[in-house]
Amino acid sequence: MTAASLLRLAGVEVAYQGVIQVLRGISLEVRAGSAVAILGANGAGKSTTLKAISGLLLSERGRVTAGTVELDGKSIQGLDPADMVKMGVAHVMEGRRLFGQLTVMENLRTGAFSRRDSAGVARDLERVMEYFPRLRERRGLKAGYLSGGEQQMVALGRAIMARPRLLLLDEPSMGLAPLVVKEIFEIIARLRESEGVSILLAEQNATRALALVDYGYVMENGHVVLEGSASQLRENDDIRNFYLGLGDVASRAPKPLGAPS
Fold first, then answer.
1. Which of 97, 146, 241, 245 is the most exposed place for a label (fewest CB within 10 A)?
2. What pLDDT score was predicted for residue 260?
3. How far is CA 67 from CA 12, 52, 61, 222, in A?
4. Cα dihedral sign for 243, 90, 27, 194?
5. Cross-strand bridge partners of residue 26
6. How many whole angstroms separate alpha carbon 194 and alpha carbon 181?
């Protein structure tokens, strides 16, 4: 039986300040329990796509100007980020965006701001420490003094504290050493497997992303130019050339799967 659609974007266009168009007709879907990647270079529109879902466009004078964004088949356009958290959507932004002067524990507790179950919050704090043992050692340190990898762990832990159904991850590998990236992606996979969290991952690291997800979309200049299962994308010549660094570098842009060469 095919899993139900959790998130759906259809023909979404986004403009900033009413004039700067960034997304041009984006359509994608995340099914319940699945992991989906949005691949592309800087400026492709990956971050804007995630912000269109989580409500963070509003804080940057951006808005959806066309198309629909639906969660569980219902429109979520115009809702603010606090509403989205209550609906089970957690967004881990590019660059972590922690409260540098707060401790690790204080940052983690901010992820549970909408919850009133103190016993459940305490259990989830312990669960985060099990996922990230290093944070237990650093629980009293200010987040601004942590390494980049440790800060990414705090950002993920803060999202876990919201008990999300859908986790939006924006470039979780950015600026991290390969061993740390491996550890972070292993934890993301555990979250999906043990917690049943659906994942929408925006990444430039296509190799790591396609090892994690079921399905992927490739974006360029605000458009989806290619989509397919993770295995199809790994075997696609354009993806191998442009994003995985394999084979000869082609002189053509990626095209839809199955298109003639």
1. 245
2. 43
3. 4, 11, 18, 14
4. positive
5. 12
6. 20
Write down the residue that tokens 């569980």 correspond to: 72
Grouped pLDDT means (10 residues each) for the chain, 261 residues: 84 91 96 95 93 91 94 93 93 88 95 89 94 94 93 94 95 90 92 92 92 95 94 86 55 47 38
SS3 assignment, position 37: strand
pLDDT for 249 equals 39
The CA angle 206-212-215, to the nearest 5 degrees, is: 75
Q: How far is CA 235 from its chain centroid? A: 23
Q: 217: which 2 tokens?
A: 């979309």
* Torsion-angle region of 174 (φ positive above 0: left; ψ -120 to 50: alpha; else: beta): beta
Give Cβ neighbours of residue 202 (< 8 Å, ≥ 6 apart): 37, 38, 46, 47, 49, 50, 94, 168, 169, 170, 171
d(CA 119, CA 232): 45
DSSP structure string for 132-159 = -HHHHHTTTSBGGGS-HHHHHHHHHHHH
